[in-house]
Amino acid sequence: MENYIIKNNNGISYLQFTKLLEYEDIVKHAISLKPIDIGSNDTLLNIKNEISVGAHCMCPWQRMINNYQKLCNAINLDYKRVYRPYQTHTDIVKCVENEEAGVFTKNFKDVDALITNKKNKILSISIADCIDLLFFDPIKKVIANTHSGWQGTYKLISKKTVEKMVDNYGCNPKDIICCIGPSIRKCHFEVDEDLSEKFYEKFKHLSKIDDIISKGRIEENKQKYNIDTVLINKETMIEMGLKEENIIDCGLCTVCNSDKFHSYRVEKELAGRNTGIICMCNANSLQ
Ligand SMILES: [Zn+2]
After folding, report:
1. Could you report the per-residue pLDDT of 246-277, keeping only the tens digit for each?
2. Position 212 pLDDT exceeds 50
3. Helix, strand, coil proportions of the chain in percent (round to 5)?
4. What is the pTM of this model?
């Protein structure tokens, strides 16, 4: 049996993890599928770039807001409570306290992971091939949402997220659930020798290093390598004390499934963005 389901609610499709649905009365989450597109940093900041939607033209910012509204409505959340950081492949993890909600607010510039123990704060991460990690500690009631592309993986942002959950909120790693969203997988994450060597040096202590980096094809006499960034994140979290059964990986490759998910490798600069959202709520009450 799959560990996730794909729901379709009035034409809005999204993925949900069955493990998190066990706590649906206190935590809500979704990872959007196409055609939902929350836009890349570049398209959103280029306001001249209009997109035609049916007979109308809509600026990318308005389209993003509409898409957040549709996705949030589908799981009974108020889109005005979305916190979307301006992600720049950093290893910066920030806690959401009482800052104003919104997209790209100054408090969350150059931030790639958000944590909170407060209710009604929708943590949103944007992705197109990068890994989205949704964290939930059902004991301490803390959530986190982490953007771990290859750069964030190399900089250990998943480890830094867990450390901050422990240090700031008293979480015990063995209680933390981590769900791994659709991302580019080893089948398609191909790099040159210099980057594979950097990864090898950084992660050679991991027990599964031989599965993490493999020789791939040869192109123009150059050896290519395939790297399993998801496995690096899993091994790192096990090292941090998370239980293997609490690390839930949907196993989906965004490149193999680019009909369903936005993929930077496939669509390049034109690629839209998926979003993973997670929010804690009051038990049994709509907001
Ligand atoms: Zn693939």
Report:
1. 999 999 999 999 999 999 999 999 999 999 99
2. yes
3. 30, 30, 40
4. 0.95
Cα-to-centroid distance, 129 and ligand 1 (Å): 10
pLDDT at 176: 98
Residue 68 in tokens: 């957040």
Residues 6 or more apart whose Cβ sits within 8 Å of residue 136:
20, 23, 27, 142, 143, 176, 177, 179, 278
Rounded distance from Cα 1 to ligand 1 centre (Å): 21
**How far does residue 150's CA lie from ligand 1's centre (Å)?**
15
- Tell me the CA distances in angstroms from 126 to 87, 112, 207, 272, one per residue in order: 8, 9, 30, 9
DSSP letter assigned to residue 101: P
- Domains annotated for the chain, with CATH where assigned, are 4-187+243-280 (3.60.140.10)
Confidence of residue 287 (pLDDT cuts 50, 70, 90): very low
Separation of CA 33 from chain center: 13
In angstroms, the Cα distances linking 180 to 4, 125, 223 are 10, 13, 29
| Rounded distance from Cα 156 to ligand 1 centre (Å) | 23
